[in-house]
Amino acid sequence: MRFISLLLLCFVVKLSAAQPQFETGAGQVQRYLPLLAGKRVGLLVNQTSLVAEQHLVDVLLANKVNVVGIFAPEHGFRGDHDAGAAVNSGTDSKTGLPLWSMYGANKQPSAQQMQQLDLVIFDIQDVGVRYYTYISSMHYMMQAAAEHGVGMLILDRPNPNGAYVDGPLLDLAFQSFVGMHPIPLLHGMTVGELARMIKGEGWISNADKLQLSVIPMTGYRRDMPYALPVKPSPNLPDAQAVALYPSLGFFEATPLSVGRGTAFAFKVIGYDKFGPAGFSFTPVSTPGAALTPPLMDKTLYGEDLRQVPANGLDLQYLQRWHALFKQHNEVFFTAPAFMDKLAGTDKLRLQIEQGLSEQAIRASWHNDLQRFKQQRQPYLLYP
């Protein structure tokens, strides 16, 4: 009996050694600090850039790293700006460091900013959806780094939608800040893997000149659940909203509300003129949704998805509401050009307007997804 117990103990020890404890790239401080010695460092970070409960900026300053400035993406350095709100340059009140906007009029760093740097660190929690703009900011930073001979270091983080590769591939004719790369809506990659692919596929100019490094996570699998310690933007409050975001983000091109201005953004769908009976809500101006949320101060009727399982991209919401609008002779895609940018193609909008089944729509992008899975294979870092 004692012999069996010892065998079991040895098995558990070996199993633990084979499965390293999970840690983000940012959490492995001693692994990247040597890369920063003697370097003038810029940071593309926001409120999600944490090492345990401490911000990466504070960790680096405590370790005497020469941090020259902070680049702020959409929603700002502190993550408190509305979606689409301009992010202004200025000074961080806590550290006194320059804040340089990467959203609004200036989506790419200036030559003057880049000339002050030897290395830029990107450490932002993404959600794995192509139209979520943090990866677009990463693209522009990689482009600037390649042009100015500045190194780029990605501190990798999980993709909470990493188990899915789904949706139409972006057609470069529809390229915009909500879709920069010929990848599916759900690409199933971490920011570190995607950065490797952007460089490897030459999706930026002078890609071969970019000195790119990635600090991979330890103990990570792309299908593992990951509870985000900080909400990645004001209107993605929790894991359920993040899981529904690939399906509900398209509603930004319609007159409907997805709950901006409520405590359950991206977990509901509603309209003031008609909708399913039994559930209603009223959007109001709130922090993070102060720029007149759709249908503000009106009672909306619709769907409560807070307890509905969400797994990747679900087209039924778009199809169901489009059919309802058609019954009432109302225009569903009130911003068709924006819908096409979100989808990365005009085909999805046209397919929904034509009343194609979900099965037929999915069949139309099946081959593209298979090719993409093969194309991304050399850049993957995790099982």
Automatic annotation (TrEMBL):
The keyword Signal appears for this protein: yes
Sequence ranges assigned to domain Peptidoglycan beta-N-acetylmuramidase NamZ N-terminal in this UniProt record: 41-239
Peptidoglycan beta-N-acetylmuramidase NamZ C-terminal domain sequence ranges: 244-382
Signal peptide: 1-17
Keywords: Signal
Top-rank lineage group of the source organism: Bacteria
PANTHER family membership: HYPOTHETICAL 460 KDA PROTEIN IN FEUA-SIGW INTERGENIC REGION [PRECURSOR], PEPTIDOGLYCAN BETA-N-ACETYLMURAMIDASE NAMZ
Name the record gives this protein: DUF1343 domain-containing protein
Organism expressing this protein natively: Rheinheimera muenzenbergensis
Lineage of origin: Bacteria, Pseudomonadati, Pseudomonadota, Gammaproteobacteria, Chromatiales
